[in-house]
Amino acid sequence: MSSRLVEQLGAHRAAGATSSDLAQQVRALILDGRLTVGERLPSERALAAELRRSRSTITRAYDQLEAAGYAVRLHGGGTRVALPHARTSSSPLDGDAQSIDLSIASMDSTPGLYDATVRSLPRLAALRGTSGYSLQGLPELRDAIAQRFTLRGVPTLAEEIIVTSGALNAMNLVLATIGRRGERALVEQPTFPHALEALRRHGYRLLPTPVDVDGWDQDHLMDLLLRARPHVGYLIPDFHNPTGASLPDAARERVAATARSAGTQLIVDETTAELDIDRGWTPTPLAAYSPQIITVGSMSKIAWGGMRLGWIRAERDLIARLLAVRPSFELGTALLEQCIAVELLDDMPALSAHVTARLRAGREAVSAGLAQIDGLRMPETPGGLSAWLDLGAPVSTRLALAAREHGLILPPGPRFATGGVLERRLRIPITLPPERTHTALARLRHAWRDVRDGSAEHIGEVPSAAVI
Prior knowledge:
Residues 16-84 form the HTH gntR-type domain. GO terms for molecular function: DNA binding; DNA-binding transcription factor activity; pyridoxal phosphate binding; transaminase activity. The structure is a single chain. By secondary structure, this protein is of the alpha/beta class. It has three domains: 4-81, Winged helix-like DNA-binding domain superfamily/Winged helix DNA-binding domain (Arc Repressor Mutant, subunit A), CATH 1.10.10.10; 100-105 and 350-458, CATH 3.90.1150.10; 113-347, Type I PLP-dependent aspartate aminotransferase-like (Major domain) (Aspartate Aminotransferase, domain 2), CATH 3.40.640.10. It has 16 helices and 14 strands. It has helices at residues 4-9, 11-15, 19-31, 44-51, 55-67, 113-125, 139-151, 167-178, 193-201, 218-228, 249-262, 316-325, 335-345, 348-371, 396-404, 434-458; strands spanning 71-74, 78-81, 100-101, 161-164, 184-189, 205-212, 215-216, 232-235, 265-269, 294-298, 310-313, 386-390, 408-409, 425-429. The strands form four sheets. Strands 4-11-10-9-8-5-6-7 form an eight-stranded mixed β-sheet, sandwiched between helices. The chain has a two-stranded antiparallel sheet with strand order 1-2. Helix 11 (249-262) links the parallel strand 8 (232-235) and strand 9 (265-269). Helix 3 (19-31) packs across helix 5. The two termini are 36 Å apart.
C-alpha cells in the first residue's frame, strides 16, 4: 500500500525525479496544503523502496527540505513536515507585498445581500420563541429551494430537501450516511479538491474519469461505471470545476441510466450550476433522469462564500436516514443565514444578473491578462468559476512555486487530480474584481518568465504556444 506522500506525488511522476526535483515536488505539496505541518513523512528507506530509487537520492531530497525549513528531523520521531519561520520574496513588484490568493475561486457578496439581511430580521425575530435548532431547515426555505428545482425541470417537494451548512457539509453528511469504507468512488479528473479529500476520509478508493474544457470522455465514463461498478460517483455536470464544461442533456440521460444499471449512487454537485455567462442553452438537472440521484447545492457562489448555507435534494427515505445521522455532528444550520437565503431566492433574476455581469467582467480581465503572457491564452469559458489553462508543458508545480516568489498563491494542476497528474494544467479564477485580476496576472507573467528562463535545464523548452 502506497504512503500518503507517494499518493500525493504520483508514483510515476516522482519515480524519475532527481533529488532536487523531488524536494521541489514535496515543497509544493506543503505550500498547497496537501501535506500538513507536523505530518510524518515516510522513512528514507521506505520512500526509496516505494519509488525504486537509491536511499541516497531520498536522503539528499530530505536534506534539501530540512535546509529550506520544510522538514524537521526528530530523534526517534522520523521526518516531519514544517514551514520556514520566515520567508523572503524576490518579487520585482515594488509597493505591494500582499499576496493574492488564486486558490479561492469565489466572488465577493451580491449587492443585494445587505438589503436581504435587513428584510430577514423580522423573520428571524419571529423565531425567538423556538428552540433555535433547525435539523431539516426552515420550511419556507426548503419550499423555496424545492420550487427552484421544480422550475428547472425536477418536480420537488420541501420534504425532499435538507438545508445544510454549505455544499461540502452536505456531501460529508451524505457520505456519513451512505458511505462504505473500502468501496470505490468514481470521480472526474480534474475535480473539486475538497470533494476528493472527503471521499478519501470516508475510506473510498478513487476511480478517475477525464474531463477537459471540451467535456467528458463519455465512453470512458460509461465503461468505468459498468466495468468497475463503483459504490458512488461524484459529478459536477454544470460549469464543471475547474474546466467550465457542461454535460449535454443526452449524456446526462445516458449517465443516469448507466449508473442505475451499475448500482452506483450518483452525488451531483450543483454548486456552480447558476454561474452562466453565455452558455447559450439550459440543461435539465441530472436528477430529472433518476429519482435515486442525490443533489447538493449551495448559496456560496451565487450570493457570498460567507453565507455557509447549502442543501441536499434526495428521496424521502434517504432524507429520513440523513436526518437520523445529522445530530451526531451538528444540530442544524444557522437560522440567520436561512432567513437571508429566503429573501435572496425570492429575487433570483436580480441575483443571476449580478452573477453573470461579475463573471463576464472577470473573464474579460483574465483574457486580457493572459494575452500579455507569451505562450498562454484563454480557453473557451462560457461560465463557471475559472479558466482551465493548458501550459503546453508539465510545469504547473514549478510555476506555482515561482508564483509564490511574486506574491501569488496559485494551486498547480495536480491539486485537482488524483495521483499527481495534470502538470500541464492550471486553474485561474474568473471571480476576482478586474483590477485585482490585472495585478494577479501581472505577477503570473513574471512567474511564467522565471519558469521559461529556467526550463531548458530541467524539462526542456516551454513551447511558445499552449495547446488548448
